[in-house]
Amino acid sequence: MEWLIQSWVSTGWKVRIAEAPWLEGPIGNNYIGAEFYKGYAREVGLDAVTDDDDAGLLSNFYALAGERFDPSLVRPEIRDFYERTARYDLFAQIGWSGPFKHPPRSLLYLVGSNVGQFDIPLSTPAVAMKNELICLEDPLTNERPYAGWLRRSASTGEAMLAGLYTTCGVPRAVLQGRLPAARRIGDDDLPPGEWS
To answer: Where are the domains of the chain?
Structure first.
């Protein structure tokens, strides 16, 4: 199953990061899990900060501001969650039904626990999770370009969900649907100004 997923992922377009910098980001190996964050931080010269009780997925929610999004219109509680995610614990009720009952369960069973990234219980109807925020911080500027968000089972301590979050600028042409989100290597039919 994992081989099939990796084969499917590799069918995408190849892009030059210089032409699509918004797509650049860390790529995990076979196992993601809790260890990924510190390993990636070492690899790129960042510090993994794990003791900030006020850490959030975003240092400032207003980083999401744009032509079509005004952060000031979002409820303060939602902004607080994104800016101080470490203060929150999660409780999930899990239910599977209809056409989504078996395929996701099979995927989670066969792949989720092996990669340590998406491992939610299959038979427990509800689960409490503890948040763990790992901010990747530049030791020279104290900027935090990435926030790792690890959710662990409150009862077992096992990693259940792992993600790495950041913000980036996406070219206007992509947002307006005039360009695909990724360009194939060799497509030189667009003038450079389309990417700014």
So the answer is: 21-186
